[in-house]
Amino acid sequence: MTEVKKTQKSVLLHEVFGFSTPVPGFEHPFPIEAEPSPFVPEINPDYVFEPDMVARVLRSYANRENMMFNGEKGTGKSSFVQQFCARLHIPLMTINGGPGLDETYLMGSKTIEDGNVKAVDGVLSYCLRHGIPVLIDELAAIKPSVLLSVNDVLNGDQTITLKHHGLDPLVKPDDLAKVEGSMTIKRHPRFRLFATDNTGGKIARNPNYVGVNTQNTAVRSRFTCFKMTYMKPALELKALIGSTKGALPVEVAKFMVELAIRVRASFELGEMTDTLSFRELQRWGRKALVYGRTDATVLVEGKPRTIPDCAKAFVDAIYTGMEETDQDAVMPVYELVFGTPLELPSEYSDTASKFLEIMESNPDIWDAA
Asked: How many Cβ atoms from other residues are within 10 Å of residue 169's Cβ?
């Protein structure tokens, strides 16, 4: 059994992650920090984990591996890392990938303070020193040359050389590492590196992810990669209802999940240009309740029952943001699932052509002004 320090407490991992049975290979009590640091993500009690994925990530975490999570939008890549760390009281600092992110942001630079030259850390080098795990979100949005410049970090080197410090020719080699703010960092044993990406840094074949870069194979090879996919229907139903604190009726939530699955299947078959994420599904569920009406004749926990407005909410939460070809394709899917045609609001029928037709046939329309 792992020794528990005074600042730690023991937990059963299957209870921490919400499973009914022990995680294979992690049946015994596991030590975590008793008091989470300010950098520990906030726990989302409604997040649903998949047991096998948790067990595999736990093993990679224990082996101090870099971990990359790949998958379509809304499959829970970032939220998995955040909730994994939240449950285990692991601090986490997030770096959002983008074309403007450079080596200085990651590993630091020299600056002027009170007239003196001072070396400062970047986010990655700071976390390396102090043992704070890092999540790089949207890895492929970073220029490939930037990631190549931090290969020593990705490679797991225990001593990292900082390129911006320069070398003082008067300092002997054996004394170089002892200098305060020296050009080297000793990797902290608690440091870990997570990354998320839609393409995994591979050659982009999907126009949905415009702006991403193909990453050098040497960079990709330094990560253990996990494919994130959509939740199984029962788990997604549970998560959707949980995200509304149980307010969304089960039968309504089932229809929503079924429609999402049908859209995803159409996307896989090339019949639609985009998929439907759990994030969008959550927004639809919440808006259906906001747009709904109350039925005072039926009480739920002492309050009038809410009857969701799925159609109006679907239009604003999902339909309007779709490509026009996908809008045409989703109409029969909605009718199939809900048993009623999708009624669009007036802005979809109030076209200039319609106004022109009315104007030509009825000159009195201006009287309304």
From this structure: 5
Q: How far apart are CA 13 and CA 109, in angstroms?
A: 41
Query: Could you read off the pLDDT of 329-349 as tens digits, one per residue?
Result: 999 999 999 999 999 999 888
Q: Which of 153, 32, 16 is nearest to 90 (CA)?
A: 32
Which residues lie closer than 8 Å to 286 by C-beta, 6 or more apart?
A: 243, 244
Three-state DSSP class for 217? Answer: helix
**95: buried, middle or exposed (CB in 10 Å: 19+, 13-18, 0-12)?**
buried
Residue for token digits 């990359």?
A: 68
Query: 22 with 14: CB under 8 angstroms?
Result: yes
> For 157-214, how does the pLDDT look when each residue is reduced to its tens digit (9 = 90+)?
888 877 766 666 776 777 766 655 567 788 999 999 999 988 655 545 454 544 455 5
Three-state DSSP at 25 gives coil
Is the confidence at residue 19, as pLDDT, over 90? yes
How far CA 347 is from CA of 115, 144, 148, 195, in Å, comes to 62, 44, 50, 42
Neighbouring residues of 192: CB distance < 8 A, sequence distance ≥ 6: 61, 64, 66, 67, 90, 133, 134
When pLDDT is averaged across residues 62-77 and rounded to a whole number, the result is 90
Distance between CA atoms of 344 and 249, rounded to whole angstroms?
A: 23
The encoded tokens of residue 210 equal 């415009």
Rounded to 5°, the CA angle 319-79-59 comes to: 140
